[in-house]
Structures are given as structure tokens and as C-alpha cells.
Amino acid sequence: MLSMHRLALAGSSRASLVRSTGQHRVAQRFMSANAGQKLTQAEAQTLPKKKGMRLRTKAFLTLTVLGAGTAGVVYQSMINNDFRDLLENNVPYYAHSLERLEALKDNEDLDKVLKVAHQASGKAVELGKDAYRQASDLINGTTTPAPEKKKEEQSLASSVTEAAAKLTKKIEALDQPSPAKPAARADYVPSETPAPVYLAGAAAGSTPSSSASTPATIEAKKPKAEKKADEPPKPAQPAAKKGEKKDEKKVEEKKVEEKKVEEKKEEVVAAVPKPEVKKVTLVKVETQEPILSNLNATLHQLVAILNETGIPEQGHEIFEKANADLQAMHERLEALKAEGEAQALTVMNDLTERYTKLAGQKDSDHELHLSQVKETLHQEHEKAQKLAIEQELAHQKEALEEQQRQAMIQYAVEMQRRWVREVKVRVENERGGRLARLDHINLRLKMLERQGLVTGEFLEHSARTHQLWCSAKALEKAYEAGERRPFDRELARLKRLAEQDKENELLRAVLASIPEAVAREGVDSVPELADRFQHVADEVRKASLVPDNGGVLAHGMSVVLSKLMFKKQGLVPGNDVEAILARTEFYLQESDLEQAVRELNQLQGWGKRLAKDWIVAARRRVEVGQALDIISTQANLTSLTLA
Amino acid sequence: MSTSNTKIPSEDILSTKWDECISNVIVKSGIGLSVGIISSALLFKKRSWPISVSTGLGLGYALSQCEKNFNPTLVPAVAVKAAQEKK
């Protein structure tokens, strides 16, 4: 087969120098060439020797046909990927061989083409050289042809050589991987973009001048004007002086006398003429008497006036006389004075004596009287005081008695209250003790009651749990039986138990999920289902090749062709009917009914329709099994929580 | 067609269909054969073609009935939209 392939390739490459023929076309040519060859060979072999070569011809023909068929298959596998996959899966070593064939084909094809191209190019070069040589010979031999012609020929030859060279170059280029062109060195002028000047702080924030406003603190100082009104003290000291009347009288009398004297003197003075102009000297009279001194002063004044005016000589004498009179009067006055004083002194002594005597008498009298009055008064006062004290005492006594009585009453009331309270407390204590004892007894009674109830409940619960357990076991036995067995009685019993147990809602729900019809009929056992599955699987397999709307013929074909199909075993992947059936059977052998149902449920079309009853039956069994699981778990739980 | 009182299990549907079909073919083709024989003997001077013709007719009729039995919706020139009706 490979040799033929090569032959065909060679033929095709000889037929055309074009290298760029795809696999497809090459293969087509190979086909056509093969067919042609076959025909010609067959004819050639059949025509000359018809009798002798019969068997060989036949063998050859069959071989050819087989080869063509194989080639067709290979070709088809090359075109169609699905077909190729099918073949690779089913024919041993097909994938390997096909891969090798493809690799070979690719390489050989290229090599062949290259070789032929080389040869062709060599030939063309030779041809060009020959032509050139011939042309040059011709030119040399004849020496007539125009230079243009020569030129023409030369150009022709050169063109031929050039073409040949080009061809070889091309081929070479094709042969070798064209070296990567050096990258056109585009003058890379690095655009000198000005370096980005980052304006540092373009928007320079103007520093806000912080005008520190120093608050001028004006300290108003208030001068303190302290004004003190100084009030000058008014010392009023009235002085009262007691003068003795008698002495004064005497003095007055004397004064009257003196006055008389003075009057006389004045008369005398008045009568005296004015002293002379010449100096009139007067003797100054030293007196304590005011009148005298006055008189003296007037005299002096008069003298002074007279001196100024200048009185005659006789004036002087008068004045001297007057002066002497005055002197005498003064002396007389002094004498009178002394006399009067002595007289007064004696009178005075006498008077004082009498006065003191009278005063002493009077004092003693008075004192006596005063003491008498005092005594009487004291006595009276004492008497009054005594009376008042007595009265007060009586009063206080009364008040005290009243207070005492009140206190007594209060105390009595208090006592009574305390007594009552104590009595009450005692009574309460007594009563409390008895009642407490009663309460205790009551509590114990209640406890007993509760215990009794709890025990009863426990017993009841225990009995119910046992019944539940037994019923669950019975149901399980019916379920696990080797053949289909109705379990409606067991189910009814369980339902009754569940009704009694108010708390067990789970059990009720689970029991409600099992239909009555199923309980009446029972469920198929696993061996039964497995047995039935063989039949179902056969039927499904028979109908596995029927299209969606297939008629009698389709069904018939399916029945016939399904006999030819291989049977799969075990856990095979895939979504076809055979794989599903194989997996279902595997799970059934593992007695995993749930998974088997799930697998078989994946069927479609006629297969699903045929397997429906089996699926329903198996699903019922699975459902009942699950319910039974829950029931038995519940029974276990209740029996465990019983203790 | 035969009507059955008992419910056929789903896996036996096709088998029953085949049974019905085969019996139908036998009956119909038998009738055709007999009719052909009688007619050839009585009307067509004992020629053989009426026999084959009538047998073929019977066979064809039986086959068409079978076709309907297997696929009731397969009526020529009529498209049945089963999915819409069912839904």
C-alpha cells in the first residue's frame, strides 16, 4: 500500500511541478492514478492469457479491490475525524500506523518535490548553457548575424540562465527556512522631549501674614479719693460753781462802798483843772481794784492830753493834789479792804461752824429715817417674795402632777400594745409551725403523685416503644422477604401506634408517605427485580437502534442489528444504551438499587418507555426501604431515650 | 387488533406489537393468497399473476397497519405536533 502511495505521489509530482498541492488533491490524484493503473493492469493481464491466469487474476482483482477499499477507508479516516476516531478505537494499532503514515507522507512529499525541482532546475540550466553554446557557435561560424540578434540571443540565454538561477534560488529558499530579515533599522531618533519640568509648587500658597493683633490692654486706674470729714470735737464742759451767798453779800457791800468812793473821786477829778503843759508826772497807783485802775488810766490819759496842749502852772498843782488824793484814797481803800476781810473771815468761821453742826444733825436724822424705811421696805419685799415663791411652787407642783399622770397613761397604753403584739406573735408562731408541717406533707404527697405519674408514663412509653420496635421489625421482615409480600397489616399496626404517640410526628409523616396500594401489593424483592431486569435489558437493547419516529422497518432493523452489537460489562463511561444497561447491571449486582434506578432513568425514547414499569417497581422498593430506615432509626432512638 | 384486559408490562409492549403485526401479516396475506387463488382459478384462466398480486396487496395492507401500530403518528403527508397537544 505504501509503495503505491509513493508511486502515486511520484506520478503526481511528475505531472506538475507545482509544489503547493494540498494533501487533499494529492490524495485525490493518488486515487485516480490508482484506479487507472488498476484498470490498465487488469486489462493487460486479462487480455493476453485468459485461461491460464484465471485464478491469479481473480486473486489480484480481489487484492486490488481490497486495497482500494482499505485506501478508501484510510482516505475517509483522514478526511472525517469521527470516522477516524471510530477506527482508532476499534482497530488495533490503527492510530499508530496512521500517524506514521501521515508523518511519512508529509516528509516524503516534500522531499520528492524538492528533488524533482532540483533536477528540473539543473536541466533548465543545462538547456540554457546549450542554447548559449549553440548561439555562440552559430555566431562564430557564420559571422554574419547582426549584433542585435546576437544580443537578442545572448539576452535570451541570459534570461534562461537567470530564470534557472532564480528557480534554484527559490527552491533553496524554500528548502531552507528563510533567515529572518534583519530588522530595518529605522533611525530611531529619540524624540528629545523636554524633560517634564515639574514646577515645584506652581501654586505657591502665599503665606498668610499672621497679623498678631496685640490687644492693647488699657488699664484704667481709678484713683482713690479718700475724703475724711474731720469733725472737730466739741468739748462742752459746763462748769457749775457754788459760791457761798454770805461771802458774796459782804463783798457786794464792800464794793458798793468802793463805788461810792470812786464816784467821789471822779467828781474830784472832774473838778480838777487841766495840768500844765509842762510835764505832769503822775505816780502810778498799783491797785487790784478795776475801778481804781480805770480811774488811774483816765487820769493818765488826761495828763497826757494836758501835757500835749500845755496847761498852766496851777493845773500842775491840782493835778498833784488829785494825785495825792488818789494816793490817799488808795491807801484808805486798802485799809478798808483789810478790815472788811478780817470781819468777813470771822463771820465766815461762825457761819461754817453753825452749818456743819446743822448738817451733821440733819444727816444723822436722815440716815436714821432711811434705815427705818429701808427695813420696812425689806420686810415688805421679803413677804411679797415669799408669797410669790409659794404661788409658783404650787403652780409647778400642779403641772408636774399633770405631766406625771400623762406619762403614766402613755406608758400604760404602750404596755398594753406590746402585750397584744407579743400575744399575736406567739399565736402566729404556733400557727406557722403547724401550717408549715402541713405544707411539707402536702409537698411530699404531690411528689409521690408525680412520681407515680412519671412511672406510669414511663411504663406506657416503654410498652409503646416495644410495640413500635416489634412492628418495625415485622415490616422489615416483610420487606426483606425473598418474594413480593403484602405488608398492609404491619403498616396499619404501625400507623395505629403512631397515632397513639402524640409526639411522634416524624413517624406519622413517614408512614403517610407509603401509599396504601403499595402496602397491599407489596414490593418486589431485589432478586426478583434483578431477574426482571434481564428481560427488560434485552427488550431495551432490541429497541435501542430505533430512531424517534421509526416504523416497522426501523424496528425490524433494530431487532436484527442489535444482535450484532457487543455487550458491555461493568462501570463503563458513556451515554449510550449499552453503557447505561451495563452500569445498571453492575449496580444491581452490587445491590445498590437506588443507583441502578438512577442509571436506568437516563434512558430515552423507546428504551425509557420499555423500562418504565421496572423503574417504578424499583423506585417503590427504594422508597419503602428509606421509610423503613427512618422508622427503625426512630424506634432505636426512642428505645435509647427511654432509660 | 386484539384487546387485552390485563395490563401489559412496559417491557412487553414491543413484543405484543410484534405479535399483533405477525398475526396480522399472516391473516392478511393468507386472505390475499386465497382470494388470488380463487380469482385466478375462476376468472383468470389459472394465470399466476393474480395470486401474487392479491397476496402482495394483503401483505402491503398488513404492513401499513403494522406501521400504524408501531408509530400512530406516522401518517403520510400529515405532520402531527404531539408535544404541543400533550402539553
UniProtKB/TrEMBL annotation, chain A:
GO biological process, one term: cristae formation
Low complexity bias: start-end ranges: 201-217
Domain HPt: residue ranges: 79-174
Cellular localisation: Mitochondrion inner membrane
Coiled-coil stretches noted in the UniProt entry, renumbered to this chain: 316-343
Membrane-related topology note: Single-pass membrane protein
Region (Disordered): 139-161, 201-263
Keyword Phosphoprotein in annotation: yes
Subunit and interaction comment: Component of the mitochondrial contact site and cristae organizing system (MICOS) complex.
Protein family per UniProt: Belongs to the MICOS complex subunit Mic60 family.
Function in brief: Component of the MICOS complex, a large protein complex of the mitochondrial inner membrane that plays crucial roles in the maintenance of crista junctions, inner membrane architecture, and formation of contact sites to the outer membrane. Plays a role in keeping cristae membranes connected to the inner boundary membrane. Also promotes protein import via the mitochondrial intermembrane space assembly (MIA) pathway.
Name listed for the protein in its UniProt record: MICOS complex subunit MIC60
Provenance organism: Actinomortierella ambigua
Gene name per UniProt: FCJ1
From TrEMBL, chain B:
Protein keywords: Membrane, Mitochondrion, Mitochondrion inner membrane, Transmembrane, Transmembrane helix
Compartments it resides in: Mitochondrion inner membrane
GO cellular component: MICOS complex
Membrane topology summary: Single-pass membrane protein
Main localization of the protein described in the UniProt heading: mitochondrion
Pfam family, one: DUF543
Described purpose of this protein according to its UniProt entry: Component of the MICOS complex, a large protein complex of the mitochondrial inner membrane that plays crucial roles in the maintenance of crista junctions, inner membrane architecture, and formation of contact sites to the outer membrane.
Record family assignment: Belongs to the MICOS complex subunit Mic10 family.
Subunit record text: Component of the mitochondrial contact site and cristae organizing system (MICOS) complex.
The protein's name in its UniProt record: MICOS complex subunit MIC10
